[in-house]
Amino acid sequence: MSRRPRSRRARTLRAALFCLGAGAFVFGGLTYRHAWALTHFVERGDRTPPPERLGWRGALGALAGGAVLPHPRHRRTPADLRLRYDRDFVFTEDGLRLEAWHVPAPAARGTVLLLHGFADAKDSMLDPARELRALGWSSYLVDFRGSGGSEGTETT
Fold first, then answer.
1. 134 bridge partner residues
2. How far apart are CA 93 and CA 81, in angstroms?
3. Is the pTM of this model over 0.85?
4. 83-127 pLDDT per residue, tens
5. Tell me: the pLDDT tens digits for 51-61?
């Protein structure tokens, strides 16, 4: 039996479906790379600037490779604000050590748990801790995984 030649329409449809599939594969790979980059800190490197500050070359680089997020480090401690504090550690189920600071207030009304934002460290919460102490509240500041004084390279 002889095969019937494919119509032009069928060839065009097949090519379009191939391009669509290839595009979905590339898009999936880029999405995976970005998700990985946003959940894993690197030890060295400059943080990727906000998109509005990237030129077209920087934007293409960030699009292809994902953002660069260096391991957040402390820039100051409670002692820099003349606050007494105790350094503490919390251990995760998988054995990582997370660093915490307890900033006590005299005759405290209670303790407030202060948690930093994405790709930051607990020292970013020192000003609120100082204000809470002035209002009679103790503070407990914790570094998430991979941030500040805590172990690990992953974040959520």
1. none
2. 33
3. no
4. 999 999 999 999 999 999 999 999 999 999 999 999 899 999 999
5. 888 888 888 88
Distance separating alpha carbons of residues 63 and 57, to the nearest angstrom: 10
Strands 138-142 and 111-115: parallel
Q: Which residues contact 28 (CB under 8 A, 6 or more apart)?
A: none
The Cα–Cα gap between 71 and 111 comes to 28
Residue 131: HSE in the Cβ half-sphere, 13 Å Cα cutoff: 5
User: Helix (H, G, I), strand (E, B), or coil: what is residue 76?
Assistant: coil
Task: Round to whole Å and give the CA distance between 155 and 143.
Answer: 11
Dihedral Cα 117, 120, 123, 126, nearest 10 deg: -30
Rounded distance between C-alpha atoms, residue 96 and residue 109, angstroms: 31
Residue type, 122: K
Give the residue carrying structure tokens 């997370």: 98
Q: How far apart are CA 127 and CA 114, in angstroms?
A: 11
Q: Whole-angstrom Cα distance, residue 94 to residue 74?
A: 24
- Between CA 37 and CA 144 the distance in angstroms is 17
